[in-house]
Amino acid sequence: MRVVYRRQRSADTIIGMNGPTLKVAIIGAGVMGQQHARSWTQVPYATVTTICDFNHDAANKLATEFHAVATASIDSVLASDVDVVSVCIPTCFHTDTAVKVLESGKHLLLEKPMALTVEDCHTIEAAAEASGKLLTIGQVVRFFPEYENAKRAVDAGAVGTPAVVRCRRGGIFPLWGTWFHDVNKSGGAIYDVGIHEIDWLLWLFGPVERVYARSLTESLGEDCKQDFALVTLRHKSGVISHMEACWADPVVSYNAFEIAGDGGLLTHDSRNNATLFISTAEKQEAMSPLADADEPYNKQIAAFAKSIVDGTPLAVTGADGRAAIAVAAAALESSRTRKVVTL
Amino acid sequence: MKNIVLLSSAHLHADAYIHELSTVSDARIVGVYDNDPARAEAAGTRYGIPVFLALDAALDASDAAIICSENIHHEMFALEAIKAGKHVLCEKPLATTPEAALRMVNAADTAGVLLMTAFPCRFSPAYQQFKQLVNSGAIGDLRALRGTNQGMCPGGWFVQKELSGGGAVTDHTVHVTDLLRDLTGSEVESVYCELGNGLLHGDFEDTGVVTLEFEKDVFATLDASWSRPKSFTTWGNVTLYAVGSKGTLEMDMFNQEGMLYSDIKGKVGVQNWGSSIDRGMVAAFVESLLSGTLHEKAASGTDGLRAVEVVEAAYASTIALQPAKVNHRT
């Protein structure tokens, strides 16, 4: 399924040319669209030319900030000469839009989760293959330095052979979107935040054999904007992973992981990583700044831009997106049926 | 004054119980008996207490017994003590099978003596406040819980199944299970467990991740793994995280500690300064002896039995590869 792409031009040649050569459109001017726009502007040879959102105000505001054109029409993006599109819209619309973008001959950075079903993931991958354009999924946690470091450490044998892993991604309920509480649109916390942990677990410990999960997803809805899932994975390697996806902490939350192997234990807890703490009458805030080049979203987009211009293999492929969705779908099914789901 | 005998010091918790008993004014330790005479001698010397060479004599000299033997001998010691009309505080897990635990519970009921299970976590001030906050509705309706009782592998008889009954799942499922039962006021309905031996590669499980479904509409997971390496700063942890309809609540029971970076020992370690949960439990046992009824915070023999039933279901689920119903004995 992996597609080999050939590029004639190297990144060096392109950067040396006058003016930017990668024209970028952002579809969806919400929280993630804004993040993508900021990160694309960090790429020296890219420029954000178009912001598309059916909400005119949101599109205009972001377009003004980035000196881009605002549009409410996806078709106009498809018909334009942009080279690459970041799609940052509700998950339930991913498949249709992704296929259209790829069919129109543009490279695609599709926000996570890739889609709501494995079948839809296949459809998107097939569109990428048919178009010869690059497809990557915003499984950005791989670019978070602490998670990247864990990958390097585990691969280098720092904990010996891994045996039991715990990870948690926490957050307040995303009240900025009106669709998150509809499981048929977002997939709930397992899909929306758990997907990061699933991707990272697959990246470090390989394919999953079986899944058992319990969650509050069944009661998610207009009147219950809270979700929480506890998922146990058995990897084919024998590793046991416990994954927690949280949309339940009302104000502040945290992320954490630990990897126990026969040679040691590696731990991370975002509450312990502040390099700055401000305390005034107005606010108390812990901060943990990174250099611009090390910011995960910047790294994700820089890596994709590089793949586009010089053929560097993609950091995250459509197949990686689909593999994560397969586990998320199994977890949701397990939680609904209260049965172990074997993949 | 209540006279208490220690029946075996195989379990390392005996040290703490004996130490805490020495701080309780209404009780004294009259001596130690052990099925292993050499261990009895060592304990007698360590604690500065008499050594009994016969179980009969040990029980004759006492009002109550604290059992800290290998798990497999809990039943024998308890039934002997109960037969002699003595009250019993038994180390967890109460027994290696629910049937054995039930025999202990029934024997104590018939004899009219107290049987208390050593679940000291119930006496943690952090847990008590956790429970009070949940019960007061501070986080709304309780919906889900996540717990851990991870530790270092204790080695010795704990990893000999013929003496322990099982590995990490036997050793570490029961504490958090008991807290969750106490907190929810509900029994565990079904259990799913993934376990393995990937840490120590022995013929016992050293990892275990357990999912509990309660009769009340609440689910939980607990991690019972012996996943703290030898180089870790402390023996392990007991943590709970609760999700309620209005918020979340998190407990790290033994987090009241300072770090000691010791060039003398060549080791980084913790210095815990929190309230002793063992003191609370031992004091409650002595209060129970004085009043003749089990202390309100104490775990009964039936509480011990219920936790053993959860362990049984955890193992059963690893064979069926599906959640196993808990078989509640009466």
Classified in CATH, the superfamily of the largest domain in chain A is Dihydrodipicolinate Reductase, domain 2
Q: Can you count the helices of chain A?
A: 12
**What is the 3D shape of chain A?**
globular
Strand content range of chain A: 15-25%
Strand order of the largest sheet of chain B: 11-10-6-9-8-7-15
* Overall CATH architecture of the largest domain in chain A: 2-Layer Sandwich
Major beta sheet, strand line-up of chain A: 12-11-7-10-9-8-15
Series of H and E elements of chain B: EHEHHEHEHEHEHHEEEEEEEHEHE
Indicate the CATH class of the largest domain in chain A: Alpha Beta
- As for the CATH topology of the largest domain in chain A, it is Dihydrodipicolinate Reductase, domain 2
Distance between the termini of chain A: 19 Å
Task: Please provide a written account of the structure.
The complex is a heterodimer of chains A (343) and B (330). Chain A is built from twelve helices and 15 strands. With 343 residues, chain A is an alpha/beta fold. Chain A has two domains: 129 residues, 3-Layer(aba) Sandwich (Rossmann fold), CATH 3.40.50; 175 residues, Dihydrodipicolinate Reductase, domain 2. Chain A starts with 10 loop residues before the first helix and ends with a strand. The N terminus of chain A is likely disordered. Chain B has two domains: 120 residues, NAD(P)-binding Rossmann-like Domain (Rossmann fold), CATH 3.40.50; 171 residues, Dihydrodipicolinate Reductase, domain 2 (2-Layer Sandwich), CATH 3.30.360. Chain B is 35% helix and 25% strand. In chain B, the strands form three sheets. Chain B has a seven-stranded mixed sheet with strand order 11-10-6-9-8-7-15. Chain B has a six-stranded mixed sheet with strand order 2-1-3-4-5-14, with helices on both faces. At the A-B interface, strand 7, strand 8, strand 9, strand 10 and strand 11 of A face strand 6, strand 7, strand 8 and strand 9 of B.
